[in-house]
């Protein structure tokens, strides 16, 4: 993601940024061989966001992923427009990512209504309330992207959900899963080409209890320490949500690099 190498804290109520994503159409699960030192691979891209604001961007990237939010839901990356221009200028397809959370009733955005009935707005574990929070947070992020990006770009590129324990997850694992389903369903309702999740098996387990979202939700796996290890993670065994592993993240050149599984 667009941040220092990811840490793995316990469940917390303070938000951090992640560095995320680029999803293409469903690729093969067989990883390509890592490139030799000094060469640039069509499989290597980078994700950037507000930590790289205003002007720090990677060089020699085959594809780019830009963060829409500013480390938290209901926020806006002030450099989204210029960072998207960088991502869209790479040879491969660009993508977007958004920070996620489920803070519960302490959030001023908790009772905005939505597609599902919020039976008990005072409860952190009400799945309907959590679903509506995710739906509305995704709608806000889409609005940010539509404002900053060229016409049609926000809905014609892949979106990823940044799911990390550093953000606020105050609900039960079932409510947190409902919250993320709200994000997914809203983005699908906007007819984006694909939706995926960025996380690790550990963090996904803490937040959702290991929920399986189905093969239509892609996985972007974090935690690799090198390009070679990232390529080796392009297997079904690395999947945490049940989706195909399409990207694997590792640190490189002071940025978060992403290996495209193909």
Summarize the structure.
With 262 residues, this protein is α/β, with parallel strands linked by helices. Helices cover 24% and strands 16% of the residues. The two termini are 20 Å apart.
Q: Portion of residues in helices? A: 10-25%
**Biggest sheet features:** 8 strands, mixed, barrel
Mean pLDDT: 88
The strands making up the biggest β-sheet line up spatially as 1-2-3-4-5-6-7-8
Instruction: Please tell me how large the radius of gyration is.
Output: 17 Å
- Alpha plus pi helix count: 5
Low-confidence stretches: 2-38
Which structural class do the helices and strands define? alpha/beta
Percent range for β-strand residues: 15-25%
Order of helices and strands: EEHEHEHEHEHEE
Shape: globular
**Oligomeric state as shown:** single chain
Total strand segments: 8
Give the termini separation.
20 Å
